Amino acid sequence: MSKKPKIYIIDVTNRDGVQTSRICLSKLEKTMINLHLNELGVFQSEFGFPVTKHETNYLNANLELVEMGALKPIRLGGWLRAIPKDVEDAFKAVPKLKHVNLSISTSDQIIVHKFQGKLDHKSVINEMISGVKRAKSLGAESIGVNAEDASRTRLEYLVEFGQAAKEAGAARIRYCDTLGYDSPSSIYERISKLADAVKIDIELHCHNDLGMVVANSIMGAKAVNDAGFNAYINTCVNGMGERAGNADLVSVILAIKYGSGLAGEYQLDEKIDLKKAWKLCKYASYAFGVPIPINQPGIGANAFAHESGIHADGALKDRRNYELYDFEELGRGDPEIIETGRQITAGEYSGIKGFRNVYENLEVEFKDDKEAAKVLELVRYANVHNQKPLTKEELRFVAKHPDIAKKIFTMTP
């Protein structure tokens, strides 16, 4: 490759993050996360499942936001099984879909003990090829092919799978460390061989079952770049995800920007704007109903707190004594105002006067009572939809995009 390869972020909060057991996001909350990710400069959001019926209106509505320019330049990608029928159903339900990742398992463990004769190694590849070709014929502009359980897949077979995906028209291979089985050394070695053999951009999709998810993601990306290709790290906001979670979005970015041997050596997508991180992470915490750990890198309450006398003295003299990066870079530092007096809120049983007061405080004006009444009805639905009080950003979104909001709230079983 002529240009120096880069590391891009493909955030999967709205696909893998929402598969976290016991928690979920409303379709409005998923939309808000897409908007926040766009502000942060993330390359792509894996925004959902195009063959899942309750996702259909949300997915189409978000693609309308793309056409309107409200969700640009971020790409919105759908996750599908690498099965031609799923591809056909996806493009039928979500016709404006342009970016997809097609997934199929590649390890002996899954092929033998899960598929149990339904698919063998040859038919796995054939199924994947058919899926890629069908997606291209239906208008997909970029296709990533996911090798599920890649870390436990025989390397020779993984190379064969990758070459077949590339020849079929895939732009990237997603190396899935589905069980968090890899270590930093093993993933670097395996990815180096895979990239060198297939000569294609590679995604790193790692899990945290052994506590090495960020290190594995970084070392995998390093191996891809060292081989001369672009790397795409899959992340989730606040490290959400199945079981022990996926790679935390902020931790990955900080590691690339400030890690020894990484800073200045490896090029992160220049669109990334960490100043938007604090706002995004706080919103995701509220939406998921999961507090941010106090020791979370960059955004935890203690990330910039110093109590020890030696550390406090050093930090006051020069912040670089005990801080690798500045809190301002993450959008932190402004005081947070908590209302302690009278509050009028907008809920599912709000009346027009209280509702108008809420929006006046947000400096949002309506043309007339008819427009206000329309938005009030949507805000009532939004509260039922979210099952929690709406944030200021959500209230503004509903007022600014009422027709989009209506589609997001609408489900037809």
Summarize the structure.
The protein has 413 residues and is α/β, with parallel strands linked by helices.
Quaternary structure type:
single chain
Rounded average pLDDT: 94
Taken from the alpha-carbon principal axes, the silhouette is: globular
CATH topology of the largest domain: TIM Barrel
Side by side, the strands of the main sheet go 1-2-3-4-5-6-7-8
CATH architecture of the largest domain: Alpha-Beta Barrel
List SSEs in N-to-C order: EHEHEHEHHEHEHEHEHEHHHHHH
**Overall number of domains:** 2
The CATH class name of the largest domain reads Alpha Beta
Write the layout of secondary structure elements.
Blueprint lengths: L5 E6 L15 H14 L3 E5 L7 H13 L6 E7 L2 H10 L5 E7 L2 H6 L7 H17 L4 E7 L6 H14 L3 E6 L6 H15 L2 E6 L6 H14 L4 E5 L13 H10 L8 E2 L8 H12 L20 H9 L34 H10 L7 H18 L5 H9 L1 H8 L4
Parallel strand pairs: 1-2, 1-8, 1-9, 2-3, 3-4, 4-5, 5-6, 6-7, 7-8
Helix pairs in contact: 1-10, 2-15, 3-5, 5-6, 6-7, 7-8, 8-9, 13-15, 14-15
Explain this structure.
The chain has an eight-stranded parallel barrel, surrounded by six helices. The chain folds into two domains: 6-280, TIM Barrel (Alpha-Beta Barrel); 352-408. Strand 1, helix 1 (27-40) and strand 2 form a beta-alpha-beta unit. It has helices at 27-40, 56-68, 84-93, 108-113, 121-137, 155-168, 184-198, 213-226, 249-258, 277-288, 309-317, 352-361, 369-386, 392-400, 402-409; strands spanning 6-11, 44-48, 75-81, 99-105, 142-148, 172-177, 201-206, 231-235, 267-268. With 413 residues, it is of the alpha/beta class.
